[in-house]
Write a structure and sequence with these properties.
307 residues; alpha/beta; four-stranded parallel sheet; 9 helices; 12 strands
Length: 307
């Protein structure tokens, strides 16, 4: 039996920055610090920050006037910033710089009079924030099969953007259909799917090709974690499961599984992966062998303190 551990896995630079932003705000200004939405999509991260004094809210009307509020890593629409200003809130923006890049591209394309086809998932906070930058100019494309029915004002004046946490393979399929339907489709300067999403998908594909079962550590509302399950299945794993922690693993999943792959989404603390590895060792599996496809060195600076 063997356990293959994917690398890279776990925290990306944007997640590290967002969590550190809340921690620093608590140190500098004291509790409570309010956070609009989950700072990152991981239940354990949220619970740990709550224990330290962070208060998570869905909308700004839950934040007392004059209080300090952090915007999550997924970004917000301009209307949210305007509401915060109207209510006199002190804001700290923990939006991932790679999400900000997509926002900038949306504003630029809209200013050029282009209709933007945004590849992403309806209801995801990142999609809502990007759409809010130019709501009249953005059409959401959720699936490759949606392309045929798209209606745009001028088929020759179309650009595309994407959510940063999507499946690379499915996004490529959607993009191929968009190019076929709109030959003059305008590209963003760089692919919007972030480096961490791509790296983690490549890493899980490498271990899934050798694994009977893949366990992905991550929360159900984490888009990038859910994509890792899909990539594992598409890459050869007999089965793949998403769990928030080791206690959620069903021993029946591992019946006749000689090789187990383990990875984690970009918002998952490493100690949760360690607990899964310990769970496997307690049931007779050997220590994990790490299989690395690349090394990540990117670091983002923290946002400025509010004035």
């Amino acid at each position: 039996m063997q356990v293959l551990l994917a690398a890279p896995r776990g925290y990306c630079a944007g997640v590290e920055r967002a969590i550190a932003t809340v921690q620093r705000a608590l140190e500098r200004f004291g509790a409570p610090i309010y956070v609009r939405k989950q700072i990152v999509h991981n239940r354990h991260v949220v619970e740990r920050l709550q224990a330290a004094g962070a208060v998570f809210v869905e909308e700004l009307d839950e934040v007392p006037p004059g209080a300090t509020v952090v915007f999550s890593a997924h970004g917000v629409a301009p209307s949210v910033r305007e509401e915060a200003a109207r209510r006199g809130l002190v804001t700290i923006d923990a939006t991932c710089p790679l999400v900000n890049k997509v926002h900038n591209e949306a504003r630029r394309f809209a200013s050029q009079g282009l209709q933007i086809l945004l590849i992403g998932h309806a209801g995801h906070e990142e999609v809502e924030g990007t759409t809010g930058e130019a709501p009249e100019a953005i059409t959401l494309v959720q699936h490759p099969d949606d392309v045929a029915a798209l209606k745009v004002p001028d088929p020759d004046r179309v650009a595309w953007l994407s959510q940063t946490t999507l499946s690379v393979a499915e996004t490529d399929e959607t993009l191929a259909k968009l190019r076929e339907r709109f030959p003059k489709l305008v590209d963003p300067p760089r692919d919007d799917i972030c480096y961490a999403t791509s790296n983690r998908q490549q890493a899980v594909a490498a271990i899934a090709a050798q694994a009977d079962v893949v366990i992905v550590v991550g929360s159900q509302n984490s888009s990038n974690s859910r994509r890792l399950v899909e990539v594992a299945l598409a890459s050869g794993a007999r089965a793949a499961y998403l769990v928030d922690q080791a206690a959620e693993i069903d021993p029946a999943w591992l019946e006749n599984a000689q090789t187990v792959g383990v990875t984690s989404g970009a918002s998952v603390p490493e100690d949760l992966v360690g607990e899964v590895l310990a769970w496997l060792q307690a049931r007779g599996y050997p220590p994990a062998q790490e299989l690395a496809v690349t090394k990540e060195t990117l670091v983002f600076s923290l946002p400025h303190d509010p004035a």
